């Protein structure tokens, strides 16, 4: 009973006005189009830029790896980098990595073996024999490097200690055709900040456009609903028995036709009412 009573006392649902319906008809499709276009453009731009950066970094890694002798790399052992007794082999390899890092403006170039242990690290500061923890996130890419001998680039951007985003590219180092080590080159994803700025600019542009569309929709809604409201008031007057007030004319074709038909109906009712009054008199 309580449930039935609440339904009975809830009253009829007030229908939305035509003005609101026009506003929603404008804004919902526009919002969907802007959202889809913005997300698609952002994702496509990001993927293209990441792929381009990855290809560039893996190309640098391949160029560095081509200058290294795999058999020489394997002779580097823990302790070879300890001053003042650093070996000539490690010093030479580390110097080549540092020169390549300076020439390419890379954040870091690290040479590591199949076990993921450092043989030389330019820009990272890890000693020989230390594990490279960053390699854990790129296991699939490293599998391509060591098992297939292919270049690869990480699919995930990572944040450095400086708060900037970076990407890694990898290339194999061979000894008599066998992959014995790999070179990793870390480069800054400098495009990311401008891309996010562009995304915010697009969101602001979309919001401003929606505001303009809202104003246009409200204006058009008013232009349509104002004469309809006048006709509605005229129809209500006729329904209450006021047959003396003429229906106002409208300029638009469709609503004007409706106004003329309503005025003809009013005149016919007024004439019938006069005839009845004469007959009764």
Helix/strand layout:
Blueprint: H1 2-9, H2 18-66, H3 70-73, H4 88-104, E1 108-113, E2 118-122, H5 139-148, E3 152-153, E4 158-159, E5 165-175, E6 178-188, H6 192-239, H7 253-280
Antiparallel strand pairs: 1-2, 1-6, 3-5, 4-5, 5-6
Tell me about this structure.
- The chain has 281 residues and is an alpha+beta fold.
- The protein has helices at residues 2-9, 18-66, 70-73, 88-104, 139-148, 192-239, 253-280, and strands at residues 108-113, 118-122, 152-153, 158-159, 165-175, 178-188.
- Strands 1, 2, 3, 4, 5 and 6 form a 6-stranded antiparallel sheet that branches.
- It is rod-shaped.
- The chain starts with a helix and ends with a helix.
Beta-strand proportion:
5-15%
Give the overall silhouette.
rod-shaped
- The residue fraction in helices comes out at 55-70%
Overall strand count: 6
Number of discrete helical segments: 7
Largest sheet: 6 strands, antiparallel
Order of helices and strands: HHHHEEHEEEEHH
Q: Pairing-aware structural class of the strands and helices?
A: alpha+beta
Distance between the termini: 56 Å
Average pLDDT, rounded to a whole number, is 84
Uncertain runs: 1-10
Radius of gyration: 38 Å
Summarize the structure.
This protein has seven helices and six strands. With 281 residues, it is α+β, with helices and mostly antiparallel strands.
Keywords:
single chain; 281 residues; alpha+beta; 7 helices; 58% helix; disordered N terminus
